[in-house]
Amino acid sequence: MLFPDGTAKKLAMRTPTGSNFEPDDWRYDAGDKIVSMQPSFDRQLAVVVTTKSLYLWSMRPLLVLAKCLRSEVTLREDGSNVSIVWKPDSSMFIVLTDKGLLHFYEVLQVGDGMDLSFRQEHHFISGSGEDSGRQSVSVNFKMALEINTGVRCGVGLSDEVLLCTQDSPSILFLAWSGIVNEFDTVALEDLDFLDDSATSPIKNMSVNEEIGLFSWINEAGDAYIARRDQFEGDEDDGNWTGLCVHRGSTSCLASLISFNERFYQVAIGDTSGRVVIYSVSENFKEVTFSHELTVDLGPSKSLNAVNSMDWTQNGRILAVGWKHGGLAIWSVFGKLVFQTKLDVVEDDLNVLNIDNYFFGVRNLFWCDGAFELVILSTSDTEKDIAVLKFLQSPLFHKASMENISSSILVGDECVLIRNPDSDGFDAVNLEWSNWDSIQVPATYLATNWPIQYTAVNSAGKLIAVAGKHGFALYNVSNNRWKLFGIAQEESFSVNGGLLWFEDYIVAAVKECKSSMFQIRIFNCDLRCLHTEAVPEAVHSMSRTGFTILCLMNNSVLSQYSICNLDNDSILFTLNSQKMIRDIVGPLQSVQSLLWIDTPNSKVQQKIIILSMGKLSLLQWIDGSEDKWEHIVFDTKIECFWFSQPNLHGLKTSFCAYGQLTMQFVLMIYHFIHCSQLLLDSILQHYLSQGSQDVAFQFISNFEGYRYFSHSLEMLLHKVIEKEAGSKFVIDGGILPVVVTFLKQFGNFLDIVANCARKSDISLWEHLFHVVGQPQALLQECLDMKYLATATSYLIILQTLDQNSVSVAYAKALLQKSLDLSDWKTAKELLRFYKSLMAFIFSSFIRSENMTKSLVHSFSGTNPGVLLLEVSPASVCQSSDLDLELLLHHHSQKLLAEYKVRALGQFSVLLSRSLGSYLKSERKRRSRDPTNHDFDWSFAFATSHVQFNLAYPDHYGVDQHQTKMPYRRRQSLPLNFKPAPPASVIAMAKKHSPLSLDMSKVTCLPVGPKSAHLDESSIENESNFNEIK
């Protein structure tokens, strides 16, 4: 469920060197060690106390809000700081001293102080949960109170503080104003459920005010749970009931106790390092042993007393810290999740940089969201607090079957998804991981941290994450996030469940303004397709096929059917509702539910329920509300998986994951994806033996594999490398045999080119002596129209021969690519040609400068020497002119062949101005009176074919008349024939009408009247970018 993410970060208590924001006498004292830390009830604040000072930390954003330093006088009179007691609303806390005094501190919001919140618009990105910032607070000392009997420990309630006294063991109730409530104070010896030996002082106490449960451990090492029942009468204001959970022995005393209110479990740590878990009944009158938590530190190491324990807020994870031995983390039913274990000898510890909490833990607690664990070590030299980050599985929040099938991990700011389609190969990192890290948008996390719900669709391509408000959707295919608008996002919050149905998101939500509860269905564009109002909040939700099961907070189980209709619409129907309050037990303990379809059975409704670790089957017989059967399969189960019918030939069954009763040791080996190619070695063996037929028959079996060509390249490379040290022709050399063998394959030219480019240049002479010269191979590629292979030989040719040869073949290859309309290859060749000419030009410049310097040095001895100056620019200008003529002639060729679409693509990819060229051609042809060979009919027809346009219909003039606006009729004389204007008559006489040869058009298919081209689009160059 939880996985550690990297090493721990440190919270420094020290003042930065050179800073001047506090006086010298307030600076951190190196001899002042941290003695305790305690979070507030909502985990938003934490108080860290040293022997003579205290710090108020904000956990999100992570910073120190206030610091209080005690004077030397109070340290001598009241004693040094020991522990902290918080008020549930975080407005006050009490610091206990080693002399039993209570120091009351108020946490006040400072209105005119430094505002730590951010402006609505700022130029930096806020961290997770840091958008609202933190208002400046002030920690004010309120009073000091001394209890004559001394105080050993205490817990905070809403209206009062419960203190455990030292001298006369009792439970003292004290108001937050400092007034002692003598009426509620009770001595331990007066409690009926305690015997005489159990009246020793209480040294550790915890409370759950919501259910009114107290738990404590006394000096004798016994653990108790108790409740205080309230009455309305005046004769008695409270009655204590309880029972002993754990009886300590001489060698094993209880040292710490913690209650899990969600799963009704009590965790008790003892002085031997064990943690014993007990299950408590719903009425808190029965306690049964559940399981025991132990770790193995090795044969030469042993644990000490349990120093600190803390459950996560959802009760699924328990963190335990020992006085000596580090820490460990378990799931709710005893699966070891994490352990600080050192696999080094004691002599190596001094030279290793190991965190101090590996050797002992004084305090620890989970932050809000359980993404971070704050740890204080027992080391006297420790000056900082460690914060260990964790990744969470979706099972950490909901143990539903949808979360079991998804391979994702949720971090504080990211989501890790496993990519099963990858082959695990990476040329840089051989230990490549299949996990892809996806950063959640910072704008969403800044206001909606932490992530509370995560759901992945069945294909693993769509991920939905939900925080405090709204949710965000990620598409793995295009690597894009989709978010709601700010107003829509803040209008609702996911409360109860988030799951996928096909490509639709089903979310149980709560409207923020009206506090109404709904089930909403969204598509991938975050458009709400359906809204179903529900009377109560949804506790949990699951899906099986077309059935969605919802458990409400009033213990009503609702069964819905969902169906995807056409036009992106959803049919969501309520089928049945049943009350299961007396079946599943406490609602907060329900972990998962699953509906089972049984169409051919008399039992029409079957539900698998996982509650408090108890896996059971609930079935209603004949659809009756009263006739049902409850079958318990197993206990201490954390999650389960139910197979669909006919899945891989399996019958309908389910697998449960829980605590194992059988323990065994497995050797774990790190698996690395790797492969070794052997085909080339086998072929080399066959060819060296003269068995060419056998080699060809063998390699033909692998022709469909993607590494087939690579195997042949490796064969050629190994033979060249082996024979390169000898002369060209040696008796017994197999290179000619290998070349003859490779010529049987159609990709022979590719094999030679790839092998040459991946081999050292010193091997080329031997290679091309046998296979042929690069010029001949390049010409063969041109004849066979292998342009991509020809470019590889052009690079080889440029390395071996003179630049003039490379320029000539580059022109020939460019001409061939233009003839074949391979515009991408032509673009790369054009870039190669220009860079080659720039290299030639720079070479001319360097040689000319060197020649001039030599002439200048010999001018004194032989003044009659004359230097014939040749301009290097003239050579490049001539080549540029040839290139421009080549491209211009090809443009004229495309235009003469009526290839308008190809001309547009040619101009765009080769960065040529099409509009300027067409204008110049129009002017040139207008000046040539003999140019009347343009075939308009064929140009019309072929343009429609190139751009996939439909042809106009054949219709009469009477079928296409413009609708005139309505006008009032007027009487006109009979036989009235209006004459056309004189300008129209003159123009008709001057210009003869344009006649088209429709014989070439009528044979083509008929299309709509709207399929026409605008003449202005020919002159607009940007239109050809769209045509491409």
UniProtKB/TrEMBL annotation:
GO terms for biological process: intracellular protein transport; retrograde transport, endosome to Golgi. SUPFAM superfamilies: Quinoprotein alcohol dehydrogenase-like (SSF50998), WD40 repeat-like (SSF50978). Residues 681-836 form the RIC1 C-terminal alpha solenoid region domain. It is found in: Membrane. One of its GO terms (cellular component) is cytosol. InterPro entries: Quinoprotein_ADH-like_sf, Ric1, RIC1_C, WD40/YVTN_repeat-like_dom_sf, WD40_repeat_dom_sf. Its main location: membrane. Pfam families: Beta-prop_RIC1_2nd, RIC1. Keywords: Membrane. This is RIC1 C-terminal alpha solenoid region domain-containing protein. It comes from Rhizoclosmatium globosum.
